[in-house]
Amino acid sequence: MLAKLERTDHGVTDDCGLCGRVAELFEFQGQPEKCCLDCCADLATGVLLSAEIDAATMAGRNTNTLVSESAEISGRILERAQSAHFGFN
To answer: What is the pTM for the complete model shown?
Structure first.
């Protein structure tokens, strides 16, 4: 599955729909809110990781590394959101 990323009106900044930072926003296919580039990248990686975790689980392979990487991505998004919320951009 390929995710489609489209830039919103060039030069327009607003609050990211995922982390809340003020940044240039992009539309990420399947995501109702527009997101900053960092969150879009993490969303795309998360989609791929989810598919890989599913495939590994179905094949009976160990998923610890993939799950750990997925948690790391979630942590980055949470850090950005907390940073934006508390004004530490």
So the answer is: 0.74
